[in-house]
Structures
1.
Amino acid sequence: MQSEPPDLSTSRQRQRWMTILAKTSGEDLEALWERFDTKPAYRFLRPPETGLAMVRGRAGGTGQPFNLGEASITRCAVHVSGGAAGFAVVLGRDERKAELAAVFDALLLDPSRNAALERDVVKPLEDAIEARRRACATKAAATKVDFFTLVRGED
């Protein structure tokens, strides 16, 4: 018996929403969770646990990789009753953020909830992340200094 090949469009969508959930603050995820009228029951497959991950870098983005240092990460896995298993890995030590990100991941895997959650949760979070990125870029651009060389009249 051969298994079905993974649906790449769903895989890319999941990668997108998991990235957005990981980049969102714990407070924003908590606020979205509080808006749910009927919160689905879930159980931990793996309760939130914090550990370290080695962060690697490249000089100039293209050079030889080197170990930059360690970063705290928190991971969590949940199973939503009557639904799928959700997973999350977030930067930092916020266990509740990892828990909620995993729950939202599981809920987004449910085809009957996906469109509404994509519209009401993922898209607003993505827009907020982009707005923060633009604000930071604008602030950095205001400090930009253009250097140029003047050619003296002497040869």
2.
Amino acid sequence: MPEQEYIPGVCNINRAEIAYRRKAMWFGVVLTLVIFVLLLLAHVSGAFRLVLFVPLYIASIGYLQVKNRFCVAYGTSGKQNAGEHSTSSTDVDDQEALKADKKKSLRMNLQAFVVSATLTILAVLLPAF
């Protein structure tokens, strides 16, 4: 993998940061599956399955951050940590870069919301066994 660098609105995290978000993504996936199976085994009605939105969102936003090499929290707060040997985030001072990062963060949050909401609705609509 080539050396990464900060590119406003495109890439704002390094490989270590990506690995951390990959762990968060898998945590969301596993938590979703565990909760879903428990809800099915408990024969609860579909409305209770709305709780799946939260772990689905964790999984979705984690996946998007890994795929895009972009942290939405950093993008929203004006930070970046794309330097490969960097261990802490730094401030983004350029106003155009901040604007691009905030736009990317909003778009990724909306994508994660749509995916999570869609999957949650599907889970709610599944008949109880």
